[in-house]
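Proteins fold reproducibly. Take a tokenised chain:

. . .
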Amino acid sequence: MPTPPSRVSTRGHRFRELQALDPDNITVPDLGPCPLGGDWAPSVAAYWESLWSLPHSAEWTESDIAELRSSLLVLKERLARLPAAGLPADKEARLHVTISAELRLLAAKFMLSPLDRLRGRIVIASPAEKPSLRVQGVRTSLPVKEADGEPWTEEWLEARGLGS
């Protein structure tokens, strides 16, 4: 009899830990011309720049960037141009819902929200958030506050009633 596949919980739940990016060292690729004609909406251009502050943006390949431009940004541009299209209110509302649903799917694909990054098993660490603690198979970071002192020292443990 073949052995059943192992449960996910026994595999260790490995998370990729990415370092927060330094905002001064972020290079934003050129947005390029808008495929719908004209200039990009200011909100779309600002969104494009904000995408590059995500820690996993450094892992995007050229094909990822091309898809971001051709699908995500074009849908954002269509959504920005929707009120000026002069459509009846009911049709505009249906298009808004349809475009927004597609945007949510693309945002999940590129892990643009905190929940999507959690599903993608990405933990964002910064130097101020050490040490790491493993809780029920999930690695989370404990923030270190200056007022608390150095964590895990004898004084720190005694102040919390955990010392020997």
In short: The beta strands are 16-19, 122-125, 132-135, 138-141. The chain is about 40% helix and 10% strand.
